[in-house]
Amino acid sequence: MAEGLTHSIVGYSALAIFIFAYLLVMAEEYLKLRKSKPVLLAAGLIWIIIGYAYHQQGEMEVARQAIEHNLLEYAELLLFLLVAMTYISAMEERRLFDYLRAWMVGKGFTFRSLFWMTGFLSFFISPIADNLTTALLMCAVVMKVGGNNIKFINLSCINIVIAANAGGAFSPFGDITTLMVWQAGLLSFTEFANLFIPATVNYLFPAVIMSMYVPDIKPESLQEYIELKRGARRIVGLFILTIMTAVAFHGVFHFPPVIGMMMGLAYLQLFGYFLRKTLPASLAKKRARAIAAHDEAALRRLGSIIPFDVFKRVSHAEWDTLLFFYGVVMCVGGLGLIGYLDLVSHILYTEWNPVWANVAVGALSAIVDNIPVMFAVLSMQPDMSHGNWLLITLTAGVGGSLLSIGSAAGVALMGAAHGKYTFISHLKWTPVIVLGYIFSIIVHLVLNAGMF
């Protein structure tokens, strides 16, 4: 039935709804309309159209199975991301990121040193903490130190976006797209490490050139004292243990990794219970020490301590992103049932060489969000080698760096550094970023030739 629907009013209507919704998503910055809203509505409308068409043909069971399959795909990723976001929120609440920022700001590094430091940290933190959170943290450092030096802020923001996207490409936890590929069972956890050197090349090539234009002078010294809240370091340890649990569930039992992540949420909940129960005793000890030292500032801080609440951390997850992801999964799933993904798959992966197809898909992710792009490819299920699955993981991850609107990190930083990092300022460096994109692909093709 799908073949007939692609060239019918049903197919055209569903496609038009999706395109219109996605145009609204791309205009999010200007419309101030959260990106989840249009795709949630589009998903509902598309499935109403599909439901009507399949009901007319007496094939409702086929449509029902398709919608349940897409819902299961989404549920696994939703719960996985929810746990990861809860841990990041907990680390933020325990002031771990504030502590890191204060340490960097207070060390008296030059602008060029900070350019490299924020870039390297973005590259190495994003594989664990996701590229959006990492980029916002590093942007806060750059904005704090940069002051009125627009050139430094602009170049550093571009560098952070590239580094965060590249860092997220070689880890199943670094980006939603890599997580999707891992959870689909197309690549093992360790195989993502093959992308480390290509991702490094993608980051370093433009960074080296841009660093030459960053002033090598010291900014005004800023001192800020940040005290870590109790349990901050232990939460980091629990997050690492959670990741190990998810990997073990997937690697040993071949269960979905989300089962291990949900078990990891229990670690955090039990630790939160421990923090709340032991808080009075801990406060009494700290208050006694502060009184003995006549430390009025410490006493004031102790008086404003709020007990750790795991469920408050859950509520602070990026729900707009999670709901946007639902809309995308259901829209693309609906278009796949109609037959459009088979058409695109035939053109890209039958008529084209898969390598060129994956390079083109990566470039497309600079304009269209990489989540629907990757989900569409996974839904097509092209018959590709592990080398090609790694290639599309790389290109979909780093292709978003080509334009400031190509990734969540870029869009977020345009808001955080409003007027100092813009679409046009990023576009000026796109030729250099494109060269980094090309070289990273060449490095992958050469280094991992045996996987193709």
TrEMBL record:
Pfam families: CitMHS. Residues 22-397 form the Citrate transporter-like domain. Keywords: Antiport, Ion transport, Membrane, Sodium, Sodium transport, Transmembrane, Transmembrane helix, Transport. InterPro entries: Cit_transptr-like_dom, NhaD-like. It is a multi-pass membrane protein. Its main location: membrane. The chain crosses the membrane at residues 6-26, 38-54, 74-90, 111-129, 195-214, 235-253, 259-276, 322-343, 355-378, 390-417, 429-447. The keyword Thylakoid does not apply. One of its GO terms (cellular component) is membrane. GO terms for molecular function: antiporter activity. It is found in: Membrane. GO terms for biological process: sodium ion transport. NCBIfam families: NhaD_1. Belongs to the NhaD Na(+)/H(+) (TC 2.A.62) antiporter family. This is Sodium:proton antiporter. It comes from Vibrio albus.
